[in-house]
Amino acid sequence: MVCGDIENNPDSLRLKFEEDAGGHVFSWFDVTARHQGYDGLLHGGMISTLLDAAMTHCLFLRDVEALTAELVVRFVAPACIGSKVKVSACLMKQRRGVYWLEGTICYQDQIIARADAKFIAPKGGVV
Predict the structure, then answer these.
(1) Which of 44, 47, 60, 123 shows a CA-CA span of 20 to 30 A to 76?
(2) Strand residue runs (E) in the chain
(3) Total domain count, the chain
């Protein structure tokens, strides 16, 4: 659902993650009615999906393939249909195949949601 571009995956969310100078990854996401939960608001499941995707891409940029083991999301403010939000994530620490990350979704300078997650790299690889 999140992965790939429109040519390879027509259902893609079209996220294009970049890395900033501080080691954070980020992408912009246009909130549309297609992703609506309550009238006029981005669905909470989409918020969780966006945060998970940012953290996964943070690991990809470090050549790490790992699976989400825990994801705790705090919903701070609503994201309205028609807004453009910034999704970002950073690696906080790692130890023996376990990775702890933080992610945020912001609209302008306001935090919409934040998440903490733990990812685990399986010994035999992801696939």
Answers:
(1) 60
(2) 18-19, 25-30, 67-75, 84-95, 98-107, 110-120
(3) 1
Q: Which amino acid is residue 117, in one-letter code? A: A
Q: Which domain holds residue 115?
A: 18-120
Q: Is residue 10 part of a domain?
A: no
Judged by DSSP in three states, 31 sits in coil
Q: What is the CATH number of the domain that holds 100?
A: 3.10.129.10
Tell me the per-residue pLDDT of 34-82, one tens digit each, with 9 for 90 and over: 999 999 999 999 999 999 999 999 999 999 999 999 999 999 999 999 9
Contact of 103 with 55, CB cutoff 8 Å: yes
Per residue in 94-126, pLDDT tens? 999 999 999 999 999 999 999 999 999 988 777
**Containing H/E element for 51?**
helix 44-60
Residue (of 107, 114, 108) closest to 48 by Cα position = 114
- The angle at the Cα of 37, spanning 31 to 42, to the nearest 5 degrees, equals 25
The predicted pLDDT at position 88 comes to 97
